[in-house]
Prior knowledge:
Elements: E1 2-6, H1 10-21, E2 25-29, H2 38-41, E3 45-46, H3 59-67, E4 74-76, H4 82-94, H5 97-124, E5 135-139, H6 142-157, E6 162-166, H7 167-173, E7 183-187, E8 191-192, H8 195-208, E9 212-214, E10 219-225, E11 228-234, E12 237-240, E13 243-246, H9 252-256, E14 266-275, E15 286-288, E16 293-298, E17 301-310, H10 319-332, E18 347-353, E19 360-363, E20 370-374, H11 380-395
Parallel strand pairs: 1-2, 1-13, 2-9, 4-17, 5-15, 13-20
Antiparallel strand pairs: 3-8, 5-7, 6-7, 10-11, 11-12, 14-17, 14-18, 15-16, 16-17, 19-20
Helix pairs in contact: 1-8, 1-11, 5-11
Amino acid sequence: MKVVIIGGGIIGLTGAYYLSKEGIDVTVVDNGDITDGCSFGNMGYISPSHFIPLATPGMIKQGIKWMMSSTSPFYIKPRLSMDLIQWGLAFKKSANKNLVDRNAPLLNNLIQLSRHKINELSEELSDFQLIEKGVFMLYKNESTGKHEREIADQANVFGLKTVVCNGQEVQDYETETEVDVAGGVLYKDDCHVNPAMLMKSLYNKLKEMDVRFLLNMEVSGFETHNGTITAVKTHQGLIAGDEIIIANGSWMGELSKSLGIKLLMQPGKGYSMVYEGLQHNLLYPSILVDDRVATTPINQWLRIGGTMEMSGFSQKRLPRRIIAIHDAFKKYYPGMNLPIPDTNTTWYGYRPVTPDGMPYIGRHSKYKNLIYAGGHAMLGVSTASGTGHLLAEIVRHQPTTIPIQAFMPERF
């Protein structure tokens, strides 16, 4: 059997890994050299704590409020785009309590599977700096704290270990620098990795496993016959495969149009900045909940990231939003005194966002050999190993380890 995976991000590579382990011939096609993208510049979390989908009932009201501010963590660029309008209508429909309550345990299943699999990967791949000490949710406002404690209670029902802290107790954990917060919740089951090292480790292992890589190769469409994709079209010719997996992140929706498939997907731009050679660093990764900013420390290295900017595939950086990430960090960690980054070179990437915050994982009925894997938004690394494991089961027509009905690509 030959499988062609379109997309060389973390989802594509983990899929290739688990398929190759089963003795399946795998080819990965990517329009870049897989040295950049969201799989590299993200925060590297594997977070069972993130079991609540993005499309929550309060998100629309909060999003409208944020749109009024030029430095808010959420922004939609006003534009006449039918894709965006259809996505927005589906998002509004999805942002209801019943759907969130139904989807949360299913998303939790996927993250828990991935959390288990990342430990296996740490033994099978070269070192990618897996650090298992938890992630803090930190807050300044008590109203936010009330909400975070409610989420912690729900997490406990799922079997997650949490520690609810006041401001001083957070400081007792974070002894290397001053922390200015009202409180926080430590999710002890969460862990983090160096995402660039994870990607490099996977890539090197896949080369050893004789996975074929076709890089800097643009996919322009497909050849089909009688409900089957017979080949992937590229500017260098055709690539035949028995199974075709579309895993090219934010570009999935656009590529699907060439198959006559309407797949709702929007790119959510995020920024991140890296500081190296720090004499004093954070001991724990954290999410600064009120400002939607995340931090990842590894030794003397610190990454800070945030924002959800729905502006299509705009390559324009918005300096005020980049500076807002820096300033938010400074409010929580006043003792760090980090310089403002160069807003002309700050890294950014496009998170693939579905209307309900649940990824697409599964077959599409229009073509019997078409499989989707993407739309994981901020949870790409968190869910990658589990998604890759599921892909190997789907390709081999085996029962999946966890239910995937909520992830099916035809749900909208």
